[in-house]
Every structure is written in structure tokens, then in C-alpha cells.
Amino acid sequence: MKSRYSAYPYVIWMVIFTVVPLLLVAAFAITDSSGAYTLENISAVGEYTPVLMRSIWLAAIATVLCLVIAYPLAYILSRKTGSQQRTMLMLVMLPTWMNFLLRTYAWMTLLEKNGIINRLLGFIGLGPFEMINTQGAVVLGMVYDYLPFMILPLYSIMTKIDNSVIEAAQDLGASTPQILRRVLIPLSMPGITTGITMVFVPAVSTFIISRMLGGGGNLLIGDLIELQFLGNAYNPNLGAAIALVLMVLILLCMSITNQFDGEDKEDMII
Amino acid sequence: MKKTSWYSKAYMSVALGFLYLPILVLIVFSFNESKSRGVFTGFTLDWYVKLFHNEMILSALFNTLVIAAIASVVATVIGTLAAIGINGMKKWAKSLVMNVTYLPIINPEIVTGVSMLLLFVFIRDKFNVDMELGFFTLLLAHITFCTPYVILNVLPKLRQMDKHTFEAAQDLGCSPAQAIWKVVIPEIMPGIMAGFLMAFTYSIDDFIISYFVSGPTSQTLPIAIYSMTRRKVSPQINALSTIIFVVVLLVLLGSNIVEARREKRLNRKEED
Amino acid sequence: MENCIINLKDIVVEYDGERVLNGLNLEIHDKEFVTFLGPSGCGKTTTLRIIGGFVEPKEGDIFFDGVRINDLPPHKRQLNTVFQRYALFPHLNVYENVEFGLKLRKMPESERKQRVREMLELVNLKGFERRNINQLSGGQQQRVAIARALVNHPKVLLLDEPLGALDLKLRKEMQIELKRIQQSLEITFIYVTHDQEEALTMSDRVVVMKDGYIQQIGTPQDIYNEPANAFVADFIGESNIMDGLMYDDFKVQFAGNEFECVDKGFGQMKRVDVVVRPEDVKVVAPDEGQLNGVVNSVIFKGVHFEMMVEAAGYNWMIHSTKMEEPGSIIGMRIDPFDIHIMHKMEDEE
């Protein structure tokens, strides 16, 4: 079949706009502003280890929280019948259709010093609490923004788990925790790994949530990159080096989680 | 049917409350007379009126729609052709191309954004091409990150297709190009449409990549929203959120109704 | 001699370095019903796809009506295919599916209508014109696929396991139907199947294939009664295949006994395969046949009983209309003309 020629425009496009830019990132990372080869940028990334660790730590907490919240939710959803299932799924996914800037902004107004939560607490004589500009607020923002990305893959894998499988486990004498550990979790593993990547990757690289809810004190690696390109710290070579480190880190994580599941990744992302 | 237990209902309610309360608060305060984001002082539609006179928002909205329309159409054409080609490739070539296709999807958006920024700056500086960051670079970037989603929607449809359909068309006298146009494209149309819609919505919604490749002259709606949140004052942003929410709600409800009707019709047909 | 319509000469096909056809030679005559028969992976579908133009042979030539067509793309070949699982176009209705080929040839509409109507009549689908493809049963889809191919008046129709997805009863009906269509249109049918019964029912000639080699070409009667080797014997119908020793012409020893047979020309003291059909072993009273055996099991098969009988170290399959109790001893008689002697298969030596 000669139909493969029809992919050529795309292949050319992707080489120019995906492969070459990533090579440029690598090239910028190992050169200085005059274009000479240097490893200074890469080694300079080491100075930002605390920021890197903070990003990974906060994103990891948010990912675990998302998984814990989403798992029962996805299971409940998947056991509903046709039309009910569709309505509930739509309800869960509807907020994602609003731009995440607006959703993050909503939490800004809720959490701020004169925000609604502090006002309400004030009525019963509590607070005001310092909620915004904390790490907790950043994690909350991540969970809120990316929770649906965890629910969707879990839900789509769980709809494929037949009720009779669970009944069979019960029939064979498994208790509820045993069913969860020995049947549900192994069967939903591909959904779990997809969900983890879909939450962790945007969370670890965000610069909006940290900026809007974390104030100036909780800089994340995304902020660092942004500052090197569009901010005051203008230094694209250092920025490229940080971006390169971030990318390698994530690709490594992905290849590890990929060990756990098979081929059907792509249906999950959609 | 087993009845849903009370705790799963309670859990659902709490989760939905968590998802919707912030949005609800946004909506309520879009009608607030004062600029306060904590106290509701009285009802007004002023912020909506102001929003509709906000030049920045309106031009950003216009840009967003134009870019989304062009980018999604171009991405759909390139992506559909690509999917057909990829489907016919040898195994190693296919996995190579698919890995590159996944790159913009799995890569953090900030890395994609930064890399494209570097490309555009590089082209401008090294080749002396007069290409300022703005509408054109936004368009190129949007086409780039939209196309993989079209491919991922079309490929499964191609795989589901009876592999002999393409041959059957040739057997009956189609040249390979005719066979693609007359038989393959109509069969994978649902996938193409789904890919197009996904590309369109992702393009409208994108902030991070656009943020890096847009210039001062050409803003998209998410970028305008961002600069509004930085200024932290006007409830116009609440009004905008409300409008977006209502539009999304109507579109989703509409498409769900259409879908439900079609399913009903299909069921009826099968009963004939 | 009949007119040769398709001629395959020294065809070699390789997929990823693996040979699926090894120098295949075959002549197909005009207006005959030829079946390629063999287990999966034997190269039968590949051979069909070479004729259809979907596989390019690495070596060898294909002639159609005396003209070499190696480089002719599928859409320019004067033959049509009924695909496995039909490959109907789901976005078109029955009428549009059948009309597809005619439209491509820019035939005027009135003529198209006429031809489609004739075809739908031929396959008994009158009145189904506006139906959607997925509203049809498997058998009806099958008929649409046949009509869609035949409406173009091809000289040769290729059929790739077309009845594989149908249930048994429908399959039998369609076998008769296909034979009727082939005879009424007087064109060549080339049919691929792994079902030996289907091959025997419909074909004028059967080509038995295995591992990219042709094992035997012949009429269904030839293939069944005079299998060329143990593989063919085993594949076509059920067989008891035993090692034997050809003493001399008309004399063979197997199962610990010496038998008279009708074969000759194998030489003396030659190792051979001996094939006896289950229905050719006659059950007689003990000691009245050449062998005695113990009945191990009996299964009722409708027309006959299928017995597994232990005799002379072999487990025999015997078909008999009379039931014998398991455990009982029976006598077995085999007539000389029911003993088929064949050369040991080369690849097993």
C-alpha cells in the first residue's frame, strides 16, 4: 500500500515544529548567550534543587489526593446505568470545560483574606486564617484543576470491568478490601497509571497555580522556567537547561509507569 | 437493579459540591454591585455591560475564535491524512512517528511552549525572517499541538475499519486516491469530526503554549483572562466566567440531546 | 483442452524474509470452479491476493488471458473479489454498494439501475435496495458482497473464505447458491477455503496446499479417493494413517498383517503410508475379518456411529451404522481397493 505518502506533510510539520524545537532546547541548554559550548547552565540547575524538590513534592501530594478522591468516584460512576452514567459523567467533566485560569481564580477569591471562607468563619467567631499564599493552597488548586483528569481514565477502565467479575470474587469468599486489592486495583492498573501521569505532569510543571494561589514564596519549577524566558531574570540558556531537566525527569517517570500497562494508552488520553 | 447505597450518594454529592461550589461563587459575584469578592451588596448587571464594551476582551475573543477555526481545520486535514498514512506504515516507521506524535501530548505544556518560542526566535534571528511573535506564531503553535489529537481520534477508526474495505474499493475500480476519498474518508468521518472538535476546544482553551508564543499585539482569550487576574480587581472576570459556563453548559446539553436522539433513532431502526 | 484464463508461473512470495509461496505453478481454466484448500498459513489466500493484485510476487509471472499482468494495479484488472467478512461500505446502502463499481465506470444511470436490479434478483435480494448495511443479516450481507462484485461482469470472481462467518445451515444453502450462480453466469470462480467439505461440494477442481506448496490438484473425487499423500488424505475427510511396508506390487504389510491391495510400482520392501477411510473398515463377527479389535468408545453422529477401536497397536476410527457395545470384540475387514498406498511424505523422512 502506498498510502503512507499521505503522512509526509505531517511528518515534515512535526520535524520542524516538534523535533527541531526540542533539539533547540537541548542546544540552548548546553551553550551560553554567545553560542559557545558550556555545561554551566546544566550545573546551575543544581542550585535550584529545593525548587525542584518542592515541585515534585507538592505535585506528588496532589496526585495522591486526586487518586484517593477519584477512585471511589470513578467506581460509583461506572456502576451506574446508561443514561444516569452519561449525565453524571457530564456533571463531573463540565468544570474542565471552563478555562483552568478561571477555576484557579475562583479559589483565589475563596481563599483570600477577605474571601468568602474567612467571612463565613468570621460569623462563627473563627479566623481569619492565612489560607492563600500557602503550599496547601497550591495543592488544593492542583487537586481542583486536575481531578477530572484522574477520574476520566479510571472511569473508562472501570466501565470495562464487568460486575460478574466482582460477584465471582465475592462468591469465592473475598471480603471488600480483598476484592479491592486483588481484583479491582489490578484490573484498573492501566487507568491508574494514566491518571497519575495526567495529573502529575501538568501539576509538576505548573506556574499559574503557584503564582495565583502560592504567592511569591512558593516558586515552582514552572515559575523558574517562565522567569528565564518572559520574566525579569531573562536567561533563555538557563531556562532551556531547566526545561530539559524537567522533560527528562518526566519522560523517565513515564517510561517507568509505562511498564505497568499495555497498549491501550491512547484510548485513555482521549 | 440494586439501589445505590446512601454513602455512595453522599460521596458523589460532596465531590460534585467540591467541583461546583467555586464556580457557583464566581457566578453569584458576577451580579454583585460592589467590587468586593467577599460580601454581596446588591444585584447589578453592570459588569456584563462593561464586559461587552471591553475592547481587549472582545478582540481577544475574536482572535481566539479565528485561530481555533483555522488551526483546527488545518490540523484536521493534516492529521487525517497522517493517520491514513501511519496506518499503512511498516511497524518500525509507525512506532517512530507515533512516539513523535505523543511528544506534545505527554510533554509538559511549558516545555512545548518554551521550545516553540526558541524556534520562532531562532528563525527570526538566524534567518533574518521578519516573523514577530503574534497571530502567525500562535497559529503555527496551535496547529502543532492540535494535530496529534486528530490523529489519535482517527487512528482507532481506521483500525476498526475492515482492512479489506480499501482493497474492495480498488477491486471495484477505484484508484488508491479515489478509494481513500470515496470509501475510507466517509467511513472514518466520526473520528475525523471528534478530532476536529477536540482540536477546536483545545485551541480555544489553551493558555500555557499560547502564553509563550504570543506577542504584545495578538492576544487570545485565555491570555486576556490571565492579565485580568493579575490586576485582581474587576468582577468583569466573573461575568466572563458566567457567560463561558452557560455557553459550555448549553453546548454540552445540546450535543447530549442530539446524541440521545440519534441513539434512539438507531435503536428504532434496528427493531424494524 | 479448455481455454486457460489465469496462469501462475514460478510464483515466489516472501513476507519479512519468510517464504509463503515456493515457486507455485498453476493454470486455471475458463468457466471452471477452482478451490484453493488448505490449513491456515498454507498460502491459499496469498495466491488469491496475487491474482487480485493486492500482493506483489517476489518472483514469477501472472498471466490473465495470455497477457502478463504483474504490473497492473488492482483497479485495472478484469476481475472482482468477494472479501472475507465482505468489506461492504457501511456508509452506503445496499443499492449504492452494488452500484459502486458501475458508477466508477461512468455508466449512464438508466443502465446502472438495470444492472443493479438484475444482480439483486440473481442473489435474491429484491426489495432490499434502500436497506442499511448493518441492518442486514450475515447471509444477506454475503449476498450483497457477491452482487457488488458480479455486477461489473468480471471474467473471474475471487472468493476469500466468503462463508466463514455464517452458521452451518446458511453455509450449506449458500454453497448451493454459489454453484448455481457460477453455472448460470458461466464465469470462473476461484474460491479459498479451509473447509474440505465446502471444497468437495462446489468445485470442479480442488488445489490442496500446504506450507506454500501445492500438494495435489484434481477433481473432488480424485482428491478424496486417490489422495496423493498422507497430508491430503488426513486433511480431506477422516483417515486412519499407518506406517506400512510394501512387499511387492499388490502386497502390503501394516497393522501386523499382510493385505492385498491394488497399488503397484512402489518397488519392493519400500516404506509407505497406508490410508484407510473410517467408512471403509467393515465390521464383521470376531475372527471373520483380517483383524480383531476392542471397541474403546462409541459416539452417535447422526447418520452413523463413530467408534474408536484398538487393534494391532493402532487406534482405529471406524464409521458404522450398527452400534457395538464398548468393550466388545469385533472383526474388521478391509477390501483391497479401500487400501490407499502413498509415498512417505518427504518432509517427514
Question: What is the typical, i.e. mean, pLDDT of chain B?
Answer: 89
- The count of β-strands of chain C is 20
Based on the coordinates given, report the CATH architecture of the largest domain in chain C: 3-Layer(aba) Sandwich
**SSE string of chain B, helices as H and strands as E:** HHHHHHHHHHH
Number of DSSP helical runs of chain B: 11
E-strand count of chain B:
0
The greatest inter-chain interface is formed by: A-B, 87 and 88 residues
Indicate the percent of residues in helices of chain B.
Answer: over 70%
By CATH reckoning, the class of the largest domain in chain C would read: Alpha Beta
Briefly note the CATH topology name of the largest domain in chain C.
Rossmann fold
Category from helices, strands and their pairing of chain C: alpha+beta
**Multimeric status of the protein:** heterotrimer
CATH architecture of the largest domain in chain B: Orthogonal Bundle
CA-to-CA gap between the ends of chain B?
29 Å
Domain ABC transmembrane type-1 (chain A): 52-257
Transmembrane segments (chain A): 7-30, 56-77, 89-108, 120-144, 191-213, 233-256
Keywords (chain A): Cell membrane, Membrane, Transmembrane, Transmembrane helix, Transport
GO cellular component, one term (chain A): plasma membrane
